[in-house]
Amino acid sequence: MANLKDLKTRIQSVKNTRKITKAMQMVAAAKLRRAQESAEDARPYAAQMNAVLGNLAQGAAESESAPLLLRGTGKDEVHLLIVATSERGLCGGFNSSIAKMARAHANELKAAGKTVKMITVGKKGRDQLKRDFSDIMINHVDHSEVKRLAYTHAASIGKDVIKRFDTAEFDVATIFYSEFESVVTQIPTALQLIPAKFDAPEEASSTVYDFEPDENEILDDLLPRSVATQIFTALLENGASEQGARMSAMDNATRNAGEMIDKLTIEYNRSRQAAITNELIEIISGAEAL
Amino acid sequence: MADTMQFDLVSPERKLASVAAESVSIPGSEGDMVAMPNHAPVVTTLRPGYVSVVADGETTDYLVTGGFAEISAEGVSVLAENALPKGEVTKKVLEEFHRIAEEDAKDAAEHNSAAAARRIADHHDLLLRHGS
């Protein structure tokens, strides 16, 4: 039976696929740990930055002289969406869910008569959004050569965004990324970068700080840093989410491959048995005919 | 009176130090300052320079390129854009920072050009001091 050989090659190829997905899962697990660690390491800086800025911003938000990054331009006509996704595929619904959220948001803004501009970080998201939004994409940041995400990568994106803000290219900037909740859950999130929003300190802090130089100058210095820090945090979260998503996607794939191998093996054994029975019948009826 | 305070040095990528310090000298943008326990609360921006921490009688230096420091009675937190232990600082690293500062200056908006020039001068100073 020619069928037997076909089945055998089929089983072998599924086995090879399973090996690959298994390996990818383990690699993702190792990378996930590293990504989580760097996300952890970045947390104290971001938290402290937010605390100080929250403190500063509270007093400055109302004043006329507050920096535009904090106050906003007073309009919300032009929106900039920064869509951060991964450079590589095979990570389940990770990229699609971010792209979906960004797409929905962009369409909503367009329906409300606003102008939308888009910056994409990571190839996968751009590929998905290119079809609908290629006319409004103003920049793409390629991180495919980046082995380990450093603050400088986020800082250069931040610099670009702030330069565009200074030249009044947009009024509101929002970044889309995926927040890492656990290996199985990643939550697509939208975070408004400009004008900056800070959680007001829960209770008015009892210490009154002296500022050197004065508050506005510090704000001028800190707000761009804060934008870069928030982008950095978002990218790190994204990195951890990507690996988590890939891990569970590959885990599923490995399991599916296993099930498929079992099914094919049963089929293979059955047809082998059928072939043997057939041959026996032929021999016996041949002997009887003598 | 407490004779030590909590000192934290964090960069966006990692936490470099977290120790009980006796005093910390900080390169503030308005001039260097030394913070000791029970210092009045101050927030200051940093200029490129060295933060030196005295803990257990030993001094440790860190290169910072900018950022800010929060000083309160209980402790000092330095949030640096780039931070390196002094041992890891080489001429090459300083030259790289100097180059970045110069590049940034080109992009800087006009109202920031004075600050950018100061930053370059600070980096230049660091380079010179490193050589000697």
Secondary structure: elements and pairs:
The complex is a heterodimer of chains A (290) and B (132).
Chain A: H1 2-60, H2 68-71, E1 78-84, H3 94-111, E2 115-121, H4 123-133, E3 137-141, H5 151-166, E4 172-180, E5 186-194, E6 210-212, H6 215-289
Parallel strand pairs in A: 1-2, 1-4, 2-3
Antiparallel strand pairs in A: 4-5
Helix pairs in contact in A: 1-6, 3-4, 5-6
Chain B: E1 5-10, E2 15-21, E3 23-28, E4 31-35, E5 42-46, E6 49-55, E7 58-64, E8 67-71, E9 75-80, E10 83-85, H1 91-107, H2 113-131
Parallel strand pairs in B: 1-9
Antiparallel strand pairs in B: 1-2, 3-4, 3-6, 5-8, 6-7, 7-10, 8-9
Helix pairs in contact in B: 1-2
List keywords for this structure.
heterodimer, A: 290 residues, alpha/beta, Pyruvate Kinase, Chain: A, domain 1, 6 helices, 6 strands, elongated, B: 132 residues, alpha+beta, ATP Synthase, domain 1, 2 domains, 5-stranded antiparallel beta sheet, 2 helices, 10 strands
Rounded mean pLDDT score of chain A: 88
What does the largest sheet of chain B look like?
Answer: 5 strands, mixed
Termini separation of chain B: 40 Å
Unreliable runs of chain B: none
Number of helices of chain B: 2
CATH superfamily of the largest domain in chain B: F0F1 ATP synthase delta/epsilon subunit, N-terminal
Query: Judging by the overall fold, what is the CATH architecture of the largest domain in chain B?
Result: Sandwich
Overall pLDDT level of chain B: 85
Strand portion of chain B, in percent?
A: 35-45%
Strands side by side in the biggest sheet of chain A: 3-2-1-4-5
- Biggest beta-sheet profile of chain A: 5 strands, mixed
**Which fold name fills CATH's third level, the topology of the largest domain in chain B?**
ATP Synthase, domain 1
The total count of helices of chain A amounts to 6
- Poorly predicted residue ranges of chain A: none
CATH class of the largest domain in chain B reads Mainly Beta
| Gyration radius of chain A, rounded | 28 Å
How many separate structural domains of chain B? Answer: 2
> Which strand order do you get reading across the main beta sheet of chain B?
2-1-9-8-5
Q: Tell me how many strands of chain B there are.
A: 10
What is the gyration radius of chain B calculated from CA atoms? 15 Å
What is the CA-CA span between the terminal residues of chain A?
A: 27 Å
